[in-house]
Amino acid sequence: MDDHTRQATRLWTLAQPVVSAFVVSAVRDFTARDDVLQETAVAVMESFDRYDPQRPFVAWAMGIAQNQVRLYLRRIQRDRLVFDEDVLVQLAAAFEEAFPEQSPSLGFLRGCLDQLEGRARELCELRYGRDLKPTAIAESLGMSGNTVSKALQRIREQLRACIERKVSFEKGMP
């Protein structure tokens, strides 16, 4: 290990408890805390040659940690798509059209939609909330139109299966 790396490691080891406490206070998700702290450590080590030894190292490392926390918060904001009432109404209408014989069970749709996460939730929002066609969704997400169409088909099947499970459970069938 060269002197430069040894010095960076020594300073990071001293600053890490303070930086860790900051990350823990700012990031609620336990697993994300570790990721943000690790990303901070990597950023500190990668940018150590830009550190000015005339300034306190802890303050410099905290600045990097703040940037990493901001990046994390931006990421989770984008990931959290919440369906509004219009989206739910449009999805229910789409299900009624596709499965008219199952329309009494559409009351379970909200619970099934709440179980969608990540890309599935985003695709539903774009298709039914914003009324975008698969080709427009594909362009905005950098995917192929066929991939989007297939994903939407799988999501509709997933929602249908969820509704059917809830109906079966309510009727007392396992």
From TrEMBL:
**Domain RNA polymerase sigma-70 region positions:** 16-78
Domain RNA polymerase sigma factor 70 region 4 type positions = 110-159
Q: Which family does it belong to?
A: Belongs to the sigma-70 factor family. ECF subfamily.
Tell me one GO molecular function of this protein: DNA binding
Gene3D superfamilies noted in UniProt: 1.10.1740.10, Winged helix-like DNA-binding domain superfamily/Winged helix DNA-binding domain
What organism does the record attribute this protein to? Planctopirus limnophila (strain ATCC 43296 / DSM 3776 / IFAM 1008 / Mu 290) (Planctomyces limnophilus)
Keyword tags: Sigma factor, Transcription, Transcription regulation
Question: What name appears for this protein in its UniProt entry?
Answer: RNA polymerase sigma-70 factor
Q: Can you tell me which residues the record assigns to a coiled coil?
A: none
Q: Which InterPro entries match?
A: RNA_pol_sigma-70-like, RNA_pol_sigma-70_dom, RNA_pol_sigma70_ECF_RHOBA, RNA_pol_sigma70_r2, RNA_pol_sigma70_r4_t2, RNA_pol_sigma_r2, RNA_pol_sigma_r3/r4-like, WH-like_DNA-bd_sf
Q: What's a BP term from Gene Ontology annotated to this protein?
A: DNA-templated transcription initiation
